[in-house]
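Schema walk-through. Below, the input block comes first and the output block second. Nothing else is stored per chain. Lengths vary across the set, and this one has 391 residues.
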Amino acid sequence: MIRALFVFLFFLALFTVSVFFAMQQTGFASLRFGDTEYTVNLVNFVIGIFILLPLLYIFFKLVGLLFNAPKLIHDKMSSRRHNKALKDTQHGLTKFIQGDWVQSEKLLLRGAENSKASAINYIWAACAAHQRGDFTERDAHLAAAKNANPDETATLDVLQAEMLLEQNMPEQALASLSKHSDAIRSNSKIATLFSTAYEQLQDWDRLASIIPQLKNAKNLDAQHYSHIVKQALKGLLKTQQNNADEIGTKHKDALLADGELTVEYVSALRQQGKHELAESISSTSLNTNWNSKLAHQYGLIEFKDAGAVLSKAEKWAEQHTDDENLYLSLGRICKQAQLWGKAKAYFESSLSRKPLAETYAELSSLHEQLDEHDDAHRCAKKGLQLATNKL
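--- output ---
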């Protein structure tokens, strides 16, 4: 507006000055058109020029406007459509936040028709369809998003895999992630999705195989990493007990770093018949990091020299006087060493600290072995009552 005012004032001043100088001169302006000659007073000529120039400007402006009218109309209509698409998109996202999945999906799809970033609309529409449980429509929207923006195919594969895992379809999720296995180390999201898929499939071998990659994955939550390692190794020890020693060789540090895993490892070694290795692992771990459940496992190991082991275990009892599992194990070790009196004393010491059904069972068996049938019956009855109450 100000610029137009300055232009007007400039031409007004120019017009005034030009007319003033023309009035100071005596003369005429002569114009020839063919054989015809026109003579005009100089002042009138100047005034005519200043009238003609704006008229010519307006004329050419109108001609230009006439020729550009279709384009201007198209641009205007396109702008209106884009503005409406933006409004539909914003309204659709609001409905999504409010939990109105049906209306949100409808508005987002309508907004996608004239949106400059239609892939965004299709992605959110897919999320809305997923929330309302229409997985066929969800996949269709994701396919539309890929077509709209092929450069974002990797991102959409990850999103689809995440939704499939929520749907408990790990095999389909892995198919969606198949092209991105190299990104496990560099992308924590992809790492998490792979591990979740293997966990849902209970494919402990493949889950364990990516542990080295997960260990160095960028921005992977330490707690989630620990959970993955624990689930993988527990699964392996449970399903591959006959290979417990091999599992231990590959994942020794992880197995010994977690008390629960150490107990599972020792139990698997026992069932594999690797009692000497189980004893070595248990005693080393108990010396450095006491674990009552591991102390319980220790008594279930078959020892070549129970007497020598007993001396070691009795030293632990000097430091852990209130551990009922340790005294139970001491009693079991004494039974292996055929020290019946000591075994009975340790079982009773364990019961005095905390009554356990299996301790009563051990004591009942010992009384039966010593022909103390009444005591055997009494202990068996108490153990049964204790086990029944816990059930």
